[in-house]
Amino acid sequence: MNENVLSYLRDHRVAHVERACEWLRIPSVSADRQFDPHTTQAAQFIADHFKKIGLENITKLPTSAHDVIYADWCHAPGKPTILFYGHYDVQPPDPIDQWKTPAFEPTERDGFLHGRGTADDKGQVMMVCNALEAWFGTQQSLPVNIKCFIEGDEESGAAGSEALLREAKRLHCDAVLIADSPWQSPTRPTIYFGARGLSYFDLTIEGTRTDLHSGMYGNLIRNPVNVLCDAIAGLRDDNGHITIPGFYDAVVHPTPQELALLDETPVDAAAIAKTTGASAVVPPPKNLSLRAHLCTVPSFDVCGISGGYAGEGAKTIIPARAKAKLSFRLVPNQDPHAIENGLRTYLQEKLPPEVRFTLTTLNTGRAWATPVDDPFLQTCAHTVSEFFGVKAALLRLEASIPIVSTLFEVMQVPVILFGMGLPDDGIHSPFEKFSLDHYHRGAECYATLLHQLGQVRPQ
């Protein structure tokens, strides 16, 4: 590793904070169309910055919403090609009155940079840009080939970007690196090598044109709320297994090596109960730890349910309809479309003929998991552990990131999430912040990581 690269980063810390603040002042809220001019401005900012630091072939790739900014530098023959993914759009600033300082006026306070987009994801994208700049500024080259895919719709669904990923042959690479994730704790750097998938549905059950008197029609007309509750209750058996036909058929179970890695970062059941206010956490199966149960086992949750009268006092009706939001978290090899078909079959068989149902898919994403013995993942783990002087946690993310699952599916290469966020960064809230120490040391770590990845032989 060339020490001049790290010295460059230390010498330019003030300038790098100022650069990030310039970008953060642009309110690139993708979900609200009134911010579109600003979102376009933010895209142009990163495109211009890519050119300034030395990247090439800078292109605006149009989507159904906001442009993806692509850039590359591919002059390292025999070295691996790394695709770096990030996003320049941010969440809305609401509720505005809860910010101590304006959301789009990044402010240094107590060792953190406060403001919308600091941790998610402009600050982390700029951190990686600083690492690239240091290599170009001192060596006029990079130790790997690099491609950058920075989108503008991650916070609003990324549908246009996902479609683009499936068509863009120029994105061929050997590994995908993403700086958009938190550490498990302030002292434990964390690399995520997988995540659960998602199938999310809107279920409506209808019985009649309008609400009916429960005395006049009870026993004669099916109550959609009763039917919905019965159907939901039947989706799990007494052992907690999901009863959708074929639900577990494609499940790929984690290897013993992977389970051992996950168990190196145990879940604190007492802390979870205290934080959430629950009386206790659900015990895992006998052969699994809480960590493995959390991130390697499919789950089912009712996220919302409505129907009939829920106001004060009594209203004796048979509701005309009932609705529920159903969420299934998936594990590798489960197909969201197969889950939809299985759920539809279950409902057709379970529901009585006197009611009608509508099942609408609201969101899907496949689970993914990079093999734990992959050389790119192992290089990341070793480099990060050496740099910070503590063994990095290697985990699967218990949540879902649909765009990342698309990257894994389309690229068919290792995908590695390594961000510098902290658990209390307050992303999506009026308390969003990013550690300045992590911003600067993160750039140094990424500069070192690029050098180490350059030693991996492409497959």
Helix content: 25-40%
**What is the CATH superfamily classification of the largest domain?**
Zn peptidases
Q: What integer value in Å does the Rg equal?
A: 24 Å
CATH fold group of the largest domain? Aminopeptidase
Question: What's the end-to-end separation, in Å?
Answer: 23 Å
Give the second-level CATH assignment, the architecture of the largest domain.
Answer: 3-Layer(aba) Sandwich
Largest sheet: 6 strands, mixed
Low-pLDDT residue spans: none
What is the residue-mean pLDDT, rounded to a whole number? 95
As laid out across the biggest beta sheet, the strand order is 1-2-6-3-7-17
Shape: globular
Strand content: 15-25%
Present the secondary structure layout.
Elements: H1 3-11, H2 13-24, H3 36-53, E1 56-61, E2 68-73, E3 81-87, E4 107-109, E5 112-114, H4 122-139, E6 145-151, H5 159-167, E7 175-178, E8 190-195, E9 197-206, E10 212-213, H6 214-217, H7 224-233, H8 256-263, H9 269-276, H10 290-295, E11 299-307, E12 317-318, E13 321-330, H11 336-350, E14 356-365, E15 368-369, H12 375-388, E16 393-397, H13 402-411, E17 415-417, E18 433-435, H14 436-453
